[in-house]
Amino acid sequence: MELEKYRVLSRMARGMEKAELVFKNANVFFAHTGEFIKCDVAVAQGTILGTGSYEGEREIDLNGKYLCPGFIDSHLHLESTLVTPGELVRQAAQCGTTTFIVDPHESANVSGTDGIDYILEQTESVPANVYVMMPSCVPSTQVDDNGALLTAGKMKAYLENPRILGLGEVMDAVSVVEGSISMHEKLALFQGKVKDGHAPFLETGELNAYRLAGITTDHECVDYDYAMEECRRGMQVLIREGSAARNLEAIVKGIVEHGTDTDSFCFCTDDKHIEEIQRDGHINYNIKKAVQLGLPVEKALKMATIQAARCYGLTHLGAIAPGCQADLVVLDDLKDLKVLEVYHKGKKIEQEEKTEILPCAPKLKNTVHLLNLSEERFKLLCTGDKAHVIEMMEGQITTMDKREEVPWEENDGEKVFAPNASYQKIAVLERHKYTGKMAAGIVKGFGLQGGAIASSVSHDSHNIIVVGDNDRDMYLAVKELMRTQGGYTLVENGTVYDTLALPVMGLISDEGYETVQEKLSRMIPKAHEMGIKEGFDPFITLSFMALPVLPQVRITPRGIYLVDEDRMLKSPFDQ
Amino acid sequence: MELEKYRVLSRMARGMEKAELVFKNANVFFAHTGEFIKCDVAVAQGTILGTGSYEGEREIDLNGKYLCPGFIDSHLHLESTLVTPGELVRQAAQCGTTTFIVDPHESANVSGTDGIDYILEQTESVPANVYVMMPSCVPSTQVDDNGALLTAGKMKAYLENPRILGLGEVMDAVSVVEGSISMHEKLALFQGKVKDGHAPFLETGELNAYRLAGITTDHECVDYDYAMEECRRGMQVLIREGSAARNLEAIVKGIVEHGTDTDSFCFCTDDKHIEEIQRDGHINYNIKKAVQLGLPVEKALKMATIQAARCYGLTHLGAIAPGCQADLVVLDDLKDLKVLEVYHKGKKIEQEEKTEILPCAPKLKNTVHLLNLSEERFKLLCTGDKAHVIEMMEGQITTMDKREEVPWEENDGEKVFAPNASYQKIAVLERHKYTGKMAAGIVKGFGLQGGAIASSVSHDSHNIIVVGDNDRDMYLAVKELMRTQGGYTLVENGTVYDTLALPVMGLISDEGYETVQEKLSRMIPKAHEMGIKEGFDPFITLSFMALPVLPQVRITPRGIYLVDEDRMLKSPFDQ
Lengths: 575, 575
Description:
The structure is a homodimer.
Chain A: H1 3-13, E1 19-30, E2 35-44, E3 47-52, E4 56-61, E5 66-69, E6 71-76, H2 85-93, E7 97-102, H3 105-122, E8 129-134, H4 152-155, E9 164-170, H5 173-178, H6 181-189, E10 194-197, H7 204-212, E11 217-218, H8 224-232, E12 236-240, H9 248-258, E13 265-268, H10 274-280, H11 283-292, H12 297-304, H13 306-311, E14 328-331, E15 339-344, E16 347-348, E17 387-392, E18 399-404, E19 408-411, E20 414-417, E21 423-429, E22 438-444, E23 451-455, E24 464-468, H14 471-484, E25 487-492, E26 495-501, H15 513-529, H16 538-544, E27 553-556, E28 559-562, E29 567-569
Parallel strand pairs in A: 1-4, 1-5, 6-7, 7-8, 8-9, 9-10, 10-11, 11-12, 12-13, 17-22
Antiparallel strand pairs in A: 1-2, 2-3, 5-14, 14-15, 15-16, 17-18, 19-20, 21-22, 21-24, 23-24, 23-25, 25-26, 27-28, 28-29
Keywords (chains A, B): Hydrolase, Manganese
GO molecular function (chains A, B): adenine deaminase activity
EC number (chains A, B): 3.5.4.2
């Protein structure tokens, strides 16, 4: 703090002058001690001056309402909800989350550092603190084609940026424990900083070796016992409760049952859709759910505030203490934890604030680069009797690798795969670098008939993925996404039913979340009508079909990938 | 960690190769979760590889004994115990304290950065981690003459030293809250680093302003309520239990009684003499005493380990977790907490290890620089009827300022002060810069007769202080300290009874603690024999007589200082 500023604030802190703003009669949550105490909180220039008895130029009488430090989401991806980063942050901020530790993994996989810059720029002036973890695994695998390679060398330029806190979720545990040079260059670059983990169910020795490499956190714990194994090793466990992955109940139940020391826990959402944020809340929902499961509210609040701040080295956040930023949440009570008001740097966040969509660099809206696209290329020749079929199971994103006879027909003297009600065609087209790479395969159990469904969101490389029961509609769907430069589309019998354009890196809409919700509310039911089983969210399920780390079989622009065997087949009819 | 090293350690952590050293069947204290769990601990190259089930090239079967991370003394002064830094550290390390956060405030006040370098060098290769906080208040006051001025500019050279963790105890709270430029230059220099506090009983607004300036800790809390006020404001309270100040019972009783969250507490000794370390222990004594007062042992151990490590940003210390330094303490049980073995970087600290005394730079042994010394200068003229008398009270270091008629005699036509059984003479002589400054005053209640007692240890400026009942013996005592270049001396009827030489900066003996103890065991009883009351430790009491921050009256080379009035008198007979 500048000395001149300090002198002014010090006089207010000492009561020699009125503070700019005083919250009177607040039931203040002291995060460091986990206590509620009724007193006043003095604020000036966005900073908390002190607690005690104060007079202010402006006074807000809280009449015993609860005043907490702003909540911290310790790990999330902003791109996954299809809306611009600012929109999501604004919605979540209204729920009391004033700090976001984001990992722009998806943006980086499409646009490299331009994608990271996009997230930084778009969140520069939101009413919240947005910090960025440098994506560590871009590309996330060697068997896929993504848009960028993010080396330690490229990361270097970001080291001095105060909004870059460390290295993003290190998914490639094998490279870590086996000591890969490129991985350890990144780890070394962020020495002394936080390195987020991603380590579901490592065996004890592997987990020790992973932690030995300096990994600090994990948000992939799905049960209490494993979470404790990580905590004991000095990792901070970020308890996740988002749209897809919901691990809070399992972990918090264990904590409550065992009376566990909660120092090593924080909260995160990882991915949470805007409509669910509006409906249920954000980190305040995690707190509320934990309290309902029996966790004392003081402990839940510490997880959501000071413990996350400490984990990420944010000494100016997470507490109502002198020198901390005045990020504050007013709660109605400690049971429903209803958020009445939220302040960021001492300024109230207006609930009605209009969603502002900031423009982005033109090159980020030009990322779908297909080569040699033709209907003919969707043809799948039957070069054997049996094919590897990707069998999908309702309610899951894992798949089974089945070898089966599949329907076929004669076509100009060729034996080609002929989709029917049970079997459809799936294709992935490289879209970043005009390589024209494309592979086709066979899915079972998805259920689409009389058309095609396509998306430019397909983890983690985000190529174009399409499923259909005829080549014409699949071709049309891909052409439609080329036109919109990314999005979700649904084609029915030769006609585009509807398209949600996601032109920003092929991941994000820039028309506002109202448009996104309106489109999805039409397209998703329609996709089910067209046969996609109710156990799938059509587009989200589609987005995982190309992720070559999930068992048992995936498809990439290079072919059918047998995950367990680490083997790529050019054609599903290959052995 | 170098990649090559990591690869080797990772293979051991994963059990692919035997670890160098494995502690088998240990009851391991997991500091992060506060649990004891029976398992093995693997170590190599001084680093903990992991916990679980391991085989080692070397195995130590602990048979269920308790294994804890090495303890951390979060605040102490190494100079105050009169022995070389290495001696004290070795003794304390044998009690399980493997990390010391030291503030070389005394050395810096005598020798500036040379004094700090001395502490750094002397503790470079001790079997423990010694970190240094940069003394913030050198000189500690403007009304005294010390040996050096330590500005932010001079501190800058130390910023990159990994053993310098931050700014040492900031005693001058007034300069902090009023925004003094020189103080805030120092605070700014250590931005983002720990800034130790020294803030006994600040009023709420002052405490807020003090914390607002970024002060991180305090070790001066003497009661629970004030400790909590500091904790709530985000300060870490270092609970002190040393030779002089003993605050543990008051604070821990409060914690136990209120079931207080203990996250914000650590332990320190501040000053603890080597004979007491040998008798009672060091930080292990703090733990034991806290447990006896009812604190769960897990909480006490967390205070002594992970919480201190976290407070000072020492991510490689304070836990038995992969990547942490293998500083380990084997405890016999959890009640008496008897320390059986201590390891530093995986190497056992031998209990019998010979005290090694390292040489120091010659200039540090030449710091007693008196000018114009003569017996004549000790004469105190009675220039008025009444004098300000420094009244001392047994068992206390505070004094009373009394205006009294005092005994006198005619001497060559002058009326001079004539000490008797009630009133003695006290004098302070500037000893750093050959200024020849000297002042004399009158003490009551100390009790010395038939001689003089003198010391070069006198907080915080460490000038020569002497008390006696005749000028000849006082002069002789000071001459003796000039000869030894510092120390404690006792003169009886014209003869030096004995002297403990403290030639290193006039603060430290380099003859080993056995010599120090042997000398003190003769000199202290002798001083009492000569009339010094039993309620005083003769030399320690003497060392505080010149500290011009303690009420009500002190003496400095500039004169008699009335602390409450902030007024300096050339002569005690001045109004």
